[in-house]
Specification:
Layout (H helix, E strand, L loop, with lengths): L1 E5 L13 H12 L3 E10 L8 E7 L2 E9 L10 H19 L4 E5 L1 H4 L2 H5 L7 E6 L2 H4 L5 H13 L2 E4 L2 H11 L5 E2 L18 E6 L8 H12 L5 E6 L5 H10 L6 E5 L3 H9 L3 E4 L8 H8 L4 E4 L13 E4 L4 H13 L6 H12 L1 H13 L1
Parallel strand pairs: 1-2, 1-5, 2-4, 5-6, 6-7, 7-8, 9-10, 9-12, 10-11, 12-13, 13-14
Antiparallel strand pairs: 3-4
Helix pairs in contact: 8-9, 8-12, 11-13, 13-14
Amino acid sequence: MKIWVIGRSYPQDSNNMQGSFELEQAKMLAKHGHDVTYISCIFHPFKKVKNWRFANFTDDNVNIITYSQIYTIERMKFHFEPFKRMIWKKLLKYVEEKNGIPDIIHVHYPSNITVADTILSYKEYGVKIICTEHWSQVLTNKIDKYELNQLKKYVKYSDTFLSVSKSLKDSIIKLTKSDNIEILPNMVNKNFQISKEVSDKFIFVAVGALTKNKQFDKIIEAFNQQFSNEKNCKLRIIGDGKELKNLKNLVKKNKIQDKVIFEGRLSREETSKKVSESDVLVSFSKSETFCVPIIEAWACGIPVITSDSISVNDIWDNRLGFKIIGSTVMELSNYMSHIFENYEIFDKKYIRNYAISNYSEDAIYNKLIYYYSR
């Protein structure tokens, strides 16, 4: 099949790897023999892909076509639809001239990165329109009137509308009054494997952007309550963000600088190594549409501790770790202590097999092709 995948951007350091999940899925499709073009249109005052206007190159057999447009009002969240429509039409015309009309257009983050009418117009050519919503703003109902209108159009007129989790699906249904939504979770990268390394340290790991929503401060406080005097226990934090200084100050205040390791933002390969060498992943966000670090930990055979506000699977299996019904530091601290003292109850092979069965490239590819072909 000839497939256009539309994502937020081409992932690079300058945009915090935005678009990485979308591009990984595009590469997966190309690996299975499909003719795939990854498309992104960036409206931003200074961030661009390679250069302003068009960029066209190849990455792992995926044809990459981007258009970077200087857009000084982007941060004011002002939607100048006629202008955006003109740019999108120009970009898609360019893609047509290069590659012809596709069989499938798969739009990720449909609420906020495209002009729905422009994309949906391709149905006139017999093109199937598939959408996948990932956006946390949809989950928390923080989208504006324009974005809601885009969402409603895609839900109503696309051939298949997918959500990455049940909680996000429920939010979409509430916003659009339509229940014609399917669930297709994110995919786990093949780099995440069970580690052969043996350590005498017990390591908790937390991964993600250092934002208030992720509540790394609560993870640090919970760790400090139980393990400040446990010499063989460490907390590893992977990620970067606005809260880094505050989190480092919190660690210093509690005098646990020797126990908390700030790794910074790492590559996917480096992250997989650090996660696989850890013992437990902790994720305690206020809200998540889908928490990829959880399935990455499972692929490494590592149990997780998470909050009930994070939706990864519909039915929780305690053989994969613990889900906390509540959001206090004390509750988190108690579960961290419990898993530390009872770690032998977890089977690494069972945990990894669960991840591969549900989130591996093959598992997601087979589900995606079903939606493309039906």
